[in-house]
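Per reviewer request, we include the raw input and output of the structure prediction for the construct analysed in the revised manuscript.
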Amino acid sequence: MDQHDIFTGHYRLLQRDQAARQRLMSDPKAGLDEYFGSGTVPEGEFRIEIISQEPDTITLLLPSPIEEDTGNEALDAACRRIYDILFTDGVGGYLIPDDSLTWVLRDMRSKVLDRSLGE
C-alpha cells in the first residue's frame, strides 16, 4: 500500500465510521496508535487536537498567543505556521504551530510508512 492509500484510507474510515471518529476525537494519540499501530505518536510535550470539519461550519484557526515580545518580528513569527495539507479537496491536514513539531509529524509518518512496507 502506498503512502496515499494509507492516509486516504484513514480519512475515509473517519468519514464513514462514527465510532472510530469519536475515538480519535476523544483521545487523538490513542486513536492514531489504534489505526496506525502502537507507538505511532512519539512521547513528548505536545498535544494533538482534532477539529472536526462539518458541512455547515467555517473553522477559524487563531495564531498562538504572544506572552512578552509584541514587536513586529515576534508578531510575524507567531503568524507563520506550517500547514501540512494532505489533500486539496478538504479531506484533511495538519496545522503545525512550531518548527520543532514538524519533526514530530514527520517521525509519525515515517513510522506509519515503514510499517506499511513491512520494515
